[in-house]
Amino acid sequence: MSMDLIETAAFDEDTLWLLYSTGSLQPSGSLFSFDLPNRKRAEISIPSYGTIEQFCTLPGGNIIVASSNRELWQYSSGKMEFLATLPKSPLPALLDRYGLDNQSTLREVWESGMVRGRGCLLFRDHILKMFANGREILILTSSSLLRYDYVSGRWDIVNLLNLIPKAMRMPAVLSGNGYVYQGTCLGEDGGDLKRIDIKTGAVYILYEGTQVTSVMRDPWNTSSVLFSTGTWHMGLNRGGIYHIRRREPLFSGKAIYGISSYQNDIIAASPDGVYRFANGIGFRFDYPDYSLYDGIRVGSDEQFGTFVLTDIYRHRMVCGSVPLFLEQENEFSG
């Protein structure tokens, strides 16, 4: 039986964009577009030897793609055009700063303090996440924050003070207060939540424990961030929704597959249904029937929006398919 190892989903106008696993287990880096009204699927490829590591959507149905060989490409009207080459990776300098090299043992790496967070330790500068705002693209890699003005072609580079290792899924959001908040999914092995300063490159661990399944801006307080946790492995069912500035959870007692904002309310997908939180009060809804679009299972409801079903967590847990919310736009300044 084939599995839909969908890592990221985004929607723009009538097109659904799906990025398949880029993690350390069975990475494919395949990107597909789905014309939902016509139920047509097309694989998006780059005319280069690299694989697609991340993407972000732009207004008008265009996307920006980052490849494993550190290139940016723009896809528009069915054509893929080269945009820019990423600056040289600062990873060798980071290794040198901690007295390490490619021959260092795992024990030497961990004891050096260079690594911040959980994940697979491969000395490669992975592209972890991309955010678009206006004419700028912010790119988070394992060792840097890159800011690209795709009109002028100018790069601004901030080297991270620690290495962020790659994981199965790495949900992230760019807040309005100068930080990227990035979560880590490692299935039954747990995860963490990091805060990354986009000006200094400092990386802080805010939470460690059950894997962090999603991160989003708080719709009730846009200067703050919410994150969800969840484990649903071999009968386990634990997790919740948390605010980065409070100890008390917004919701707890069961695994949360993911959270999203819909019509200014908080939406949470869980094993027993979808919860919609309005003014601090939660209402539960049954999952809708799924529609099949060329093999992809899509669910949609006027109470909580749209999601797709993914099997990516089956890399690290004994479980079935779970819903994955569509990514939302990020905004930043400064």
Topology:
Elements: E1 6-12, E2 15-20, E3 31-35, E4 40-44, E5 52-58, E6 62-67, E7 71-76, E8 79-85, H1 91-97, H2 106-112, E9 127-133, E10 136-141, E11 144-149, E12 154-159, E13 172-174, E14 179-183, E15 191-197, E16 203-209, E17 212-218, E18 221-231, E19 238-243, E20 251-252, E21 258-262, E22 265-270, E23 273-278, E24 281-285, E25 291-293, E26 296-301, E27 305-310, E28 322-325
Antiparallel strand pairs: 1-2, 2-3, 3-4, 5-6, 6-7, 7-8, 9-10, 10-11, 11-12, 13-14, 14-15, 15-16, 17-18, 18-19, 19-20, 21-22, 22-23, 23-24, 25-26, 26-27, 27-28
Q: Which labels suit this protein?
A:
334 residues, mainly beta, Methylamine Dehydrogenase, Chain H, four-stranded antiparallel sheet, 28 strands, 49% strand, globular, disordered C terminus
